[in-house]
Give the backbone structure.
Amino acid sequence: MTEPEKKTVDTLQNLFESNRRWAAQKVVRNPGFFSRLLAQQNPEYMWIGCSDSRVPANQITGLDPGEVFVHRNVANVVVPTDLNCLSTLQYAVDQLKVKHVLVVGHYGCGGVAAALYEQRVGLADNWIRHVRDVYDRHIRRMERVSAERQLDGLCELNTIEQVIKVAQTTVVTDAWARGQDLTLHGWVYGISDGLIHDMRMSAGGAGDMKEAYLAALEHWEQKYCG
Ligand code: ZN
């Protein structure tokens, strides 16, 4: 039996070096920064975003470590049977008592594009099916949008629909039922200009959801079907 060939392992020293520089700069600018974080994390925001490497939650919002609790997956999808997303949401809402949950899509999302153009990408097809469901739900709207704007339009609709999914979780319905201060938001980030766009899908209680949804859809129609 031949021994498997040994490969030279890249231990990514460049990342360790940049990490050391970053940590040192942080302490210079803000003495005691890490020792304060050690005591507790007290974020006001939870971010549910896409895994896309171009959409990092902290950098986009200018937030420091400790300020935003993050969950990311392909195409920022919220599924009521996804234990990973639900556990993160539950910890954020029940333990950390975040005040805002931000669902953040982005233009040019590869997951949304795969759903729109019905591209097969592999295992993720089954995940992206949730985005295709959004397309199917809004097919009448989507058919009124020019071909070149459909991807942006679906990125926005997907974000709006995922806010609804967050609102429907037991975590959020229970929090609102006990009167907890918690607001949901739907945003879409522009990779081309670095700016966040508000989908007008903000709601601070179960009673706000319908109105927020209708307002978001009206805003969407003005933008894409006007
Ligand atoms: Zn994406």
Summary: The two ends are 70 Å apart (CA to CA).
